[in-house]
Design goal:
The structure holds two protein chains of two kinds.
Chain A (H helix, E strand, L loop, with lengths): L3 E4 L2 E4 L5 E7 L5 E7 L5 E9 L2 E4 L7 E2 L9 E3 L8 E8 L9 E2 L3 E5 L1
Parallel strand pairs in A: 2-11
Antiparallel strand pairs in A: 1-3, 3-8, 4-5, 4-9, 5-6, 7-8, 9-10, 9-11
Chain B lengths: L4 E3 L2 E5 L4 E6 L4 E9 L5 E8 L4 E4 L2 E6 L4 E6 L8 E9 L7 E2 L3 E6 L1
Parallel strand pairs in B: 2-11
Antiparallel strand pairs in B: 1-3, 3-8, 4-5, 4-9, 6-7, 7-8, 9-10, 9-11
The chains are: A mainly beta, B mainly beta.
C-alpha cells in the first residue's frame, strides 16, 4: 500500500467557506498531482507539481489553488466553496526516477458543499 | 476530448468467469497502464505495458496492446468477488511530460 495520505476523508461544508484539502506522501516523490472525479466518472487532472515551488494547472480548469513548499506536502485550497465544487478529490505522486510515470494514489477526499 | 475510452462501461459476471475490458486512445504513447479503484477509494496501479510490447502477464491479469489500432485490453481470468471494482486505463502520451490521461472506466461486478 502506498504511503500517501489525504485528510479529511469526508467534508461537508456550507457555501462560501474556505477549505484546504491536505495531501502528504512519505516516499520522497518529486511529482504530485490533484485529480477531480465525480462518482462513476473519469479522473480529471486539475493541478500538478514537479517539485518544490513548482505548480501547474491541469487539463480541467479549477477555481482551486495549490502550493508546494515541501516535497512531501501538496495542499489544495478553495477560497470560497460552492455546490459545483462537490466531488471527490484524489491526490497522487510519482517518483522522478521512474520513466513510466506510474502514480500512487491517496484514498481521496469526498467534498460536499451545501 | 478524453484520450481513453473504455468499453464496456459496466460488466457483470459470475465468479470463476473471465472479464475482458477494452481501452482505446487517440495519440502516440510511451506506455499504457491499468488501475483499479474500489468504491470511494483511490486508484491502485495494476500493470503497465510499454509501447514496444504487445502482451504482458501478471498473475491473473493479461494485458495486450495494439499500437496500430491504438487499443488495449485487460483480461482478468478466474474472477473472484473481490475483483469487483472500477478499472481504468491510463495513457502516458509522448511529449506531455509526466501527465497521465485516464479513460472513462469499466465497472466490474463479480457475483457469487
Amino acid at each position: 500500500e502506498a504511503d500517501i495520505y489525504q485528510t479529511p476523508r469526508y467534508l461537508v461544508i456550507g457555501t462560501g467557506k474556505k477549505i484546504t484539502l491536505e495531501c502528504s506522501q512519505t516516499m520522497g516523490h518529486d511529482k504530485m498531482y490533484w485529480y477531480q472525479q465525480d462518482p462513476g466518472m473519469e479522473l480529471h487532472l486539475i493541478h500538478y507539481s514537479y517539485g518544490v515551488n513548482s505548480t501547474e494547472k491541469g487539463d480541467l480548469s479549477s477555481e482551486s489553488t495549490v502550493s508546494r513548499i515541501r516535497t512531501e506536502h501538496f495542499p489544495l485550497t478553495l477560497e470560497s466553496a460552492r455546490p459545483s465544487h462537490t466531488s471527490q478529490y484524489l491526490c497522487a505522486s510519482s517518483p522522478s526516477d521512474l520513466s513510466t510515470n506510474e502514480q500512487f494514489f491517496g484514498p481521496g477526499t469526498r467534498l460536499t458543499v451545501l | 476530448s478524453q484520450q481513453g475510452e473504455e468499453d464496456p462501461q459496466a460488466l457483470s459476471i459470475q465468479e470463476g468467469e473471465n472479464a475482458t475490458m477494452n481501452c482505446s486512445y487517440k495519440t502516440s504513447i510511451n506506455n499504457l497502464q491499468w488501475y483499479r479503484q474500489n468504491s470511494g477509494r483511490g486508484l491502485v496501479h495494476l500493470i503497465l505495458i510499454r509501447s514496444n510490447e504487445r502482451e504482458k502477464h501478471s498473475g491473473r491479469l493479461r494485458v495486450t496492446l495494439d499500437t496500430s489500432k491504438k487499443s488495449s485490453s485487460l483480461l482478468i481470468t478466474a474472477s473472484r468477488a473481490a475483483d469487483t471494482a472500477s478499472y481504468f486505463c491510463a495513457t502516458d502520451p509522448t511529449g506531455t511530460a509526466s501527465k497521465l490521461t485516464f479513460g472513462t472506466g469499466t465497472r466490474l461486478q463479480v457475483t457469487l
